[in-house]
Amino acid sequence: MSHGGGGHAAELYPENQIVAVGTLLAILGMYIAQFFPQVSMLLGGLLASAATVAGANTTRKVAAYGLGTGVPSIGMLSLGMGIISSVSGIYLVNALVKYFKVDSLVLYAIPIVVTVIALILGYIVGRLTVKPIGMKIPVMVESMTKLSLMGALSILGFCAAYAGGFLPDIIIPGSIKNGVMALAFIAAGMAILHPFNACLGPDESHRRTLTLAVACGFLTWFVFSVAKLDVISTVVSLVLWALVYREFIKQSLRDACAVYYTPELPKREM
Amino acid sequence: MDFSALLIPFVEITLAGAIINASVHFVPVGGAPAAMATSTGIGTGTTQLAAGAGFTGLMAAATIAAQSGVDIFNPLHWAIILLSGAVGSMIMLGLTMLMGQLIYVFGVGVVPAADKCERDPITGDYQKPYITPGTTGHGVPTVCFISGLIGAALGGIGGALAYVALIQLGFSPEIAGTIAVGFFFMNAVLASYNIGGTIEGFHDPKFKKIPNGIIASFVASLLTGAIVVLMSLGI
């Protein structure tokens, strides 16, 4: 199985387990950001990076089959679906309250609604890539569903952490109208697509890719902490990132081989 | 809110998805091989190129739409916004191809030559003798350049159409821009999966796969359009 990336090395943890943990942690992070705005960036940001790690892990699984267009394409697709689902989740629930006069308690279900929309959108786009487009990757539909979910959760997670809540009257002026969502789009996108893009190859190992994914998640969190001018989160995220990245470099050096001698190219074909 | 005020943007956004998808098929994408000048086209992936051209178009459209005195519901102004998107996109992709071409010709030292056709359909020049054995063409020949410009124009129109539809639904420019970017990426990547890596332009045999991509984007945009229209009730 080494068409494009040669992934599918032994898995450290099953993919579904990582996806489930990532989803739960990211949703928990949004509720923490909502109910404890003082620590929204410290805990909400930390937990939102769990979603990017899970997304990076799913990217690894699907991109190892060889997409033909490079790993970044699927990361961007994931964030494209994610941004539509996360913005629409916020506004759809708002529409329920404003237009259909539902009790405003329903606003607290925004993360759940976003999850459901992301799953539906991801599933349908996944089906479209299989037919009529004709991608011959067996895990395409389920991977698209998971990637769409992770894209949506990471965007909403970081936006909620930045704004200090996910209620429409907090997050729309606090994160969407000032353009922080665009930062969430590209920063979380990098964290999802970069780890496997950097680590792919014949000797790709799950541990190393996951370590880099965690490092990228912390780096995204760091970017948001700086954007929010939150000193504690900035320091904590930077320290955590440095620790994990050091571990990543150690693993890379251990797995790398040294080339001591390069022979000259033969003068003619043997 | 009356029904037609929602229906027109819904139709626009659905068409925008199909146009964006079609546009990507025109852009000469060489991918990694082109970055080493061993394949015709620009040396980067479909997504990046389409995104670059699309965003520029989106920016150009948004800039015009934000001018005072521009009424988004006036058909003439609507057409001008779309055209400015197309022009912005074409400038961006045209410059990318031109600079790439300069590097290919004067830096790498290869002759622009298309692999997928015997003679250039536009200039009529022979292509095959100029292709280095073992490669699939190099540089950005005339036909690819023209094809790329058509693709950029379509991409700009598609991006601008999505943006205009969102503005007509009543979203503020920031939100419309954010959603349009996500929407653009989704359709561009669907197209790039349909192409499956590299394409030279409208003369490439892979271009015949374009209906599949357009259908896929049409369905995806239909769904997105429905979501977006429902969303607009919550503003």
TrEMBL record, chain A:
InterPro entries: THM_MeTrfase_su_C. Keywords: Cell membrane, Membrane, Methanogenesis, Methyltransferase, One-carbon metabolism, Transferase, Translocase, Transmembrane, Transmembrane helix. One of its GO terms (cellular component) is plasma membrane. It is an enzyme of class 7 (translocase). It is a multi-pass membrane protein. The keyword Iron does not apply. The chain crosses the membrane at residues 71-93, 105-126, 147-167, 179-200, 212-244. Its EC number is 7.2.1.4. It is found in: Cell membrane. Its main location: membrane. Pathway: One-carbon metabolism; methanogenesis from CO(2); methyl-coenzyme M from 5,10-methylene-5,6,7,8-tetrahydromethanopterin: step 2/2. GO terms for molecular function: tetrahydromethanopterin S-methyltransferase activity. It catalyses: 5-methyl-5,6,7,8-tetrahydromethanopterin + coenzyme M + 2 Na(+)(in) = 5,6,7,8-tetrahydromethanopterin + methyl-coenzyme M + 2 Na(+)(out). One of its GO terms (biological process) is methylation. The keyword Transferase applies. Part of a complex that catalyzes the formation of methyl-coenzyme M and tetrahydromethanopterin from coenzyme M and methyl-tetrahydromethanopterin. This is an energy-conserving, sodium-ion translocating step. The complex is composed of 8 subunits; MtrA, MtrB, MtrC, MtrD, MtrE, MtrF, MtrG and MtrH. Belongs to the MtrC family. This is Tetrahydromethanopterin S-methyltransferase subunit C. It comes from Methanothermococcus okinawensis. The gene is mtrC.
From TrEMBL, chain B:
One of its GO terms (molecular function) is tetrahydromethanopterin S-methyltransferase activity. Its main location: membrane. The keyword Zinc does not apply. InterPro entries: MeTrfase_D. It is a multi-pass membrane protein. One of its GO terms (biological process) is one-carbon metabolic process. It is found in: Cell membrane. The chain crosses the membrane at residues 6-28, 49-70, 76-98, 143-169, 175-193, 214-233. Keywords: Cell membrane, Membrane, Methanogenesis, Methyltransferase, One-carbon metabolism, Transferase, Translocase, Transmembrane, Transmembrane helix. It catalyses: 5-methyl-5,6,7,8-tetrahydromethanopterin + coenzyme M + 2 Na(+)(in) = 5,6,7,8-tetrahydromethanopterin + methyl-coenzyme M + 2 Na(+)(out). It is an enzyme of class 7 (translocase). Its EC number is 7.2.1.4. HAMAP family: MtrD. Belongs to the MtrD family. Part of a complex that catalyzes the formation of methyl-coenzyme M and tetrahydromethanopterin from coenzyme M and methyl-tetrahydromethanopterin. This is an energy-conserving, sodium-ion translocating step. This is Tetrahydromethanopterin S-methyltransferase subunit D. It comes from Methanothermococcus okinawensis.
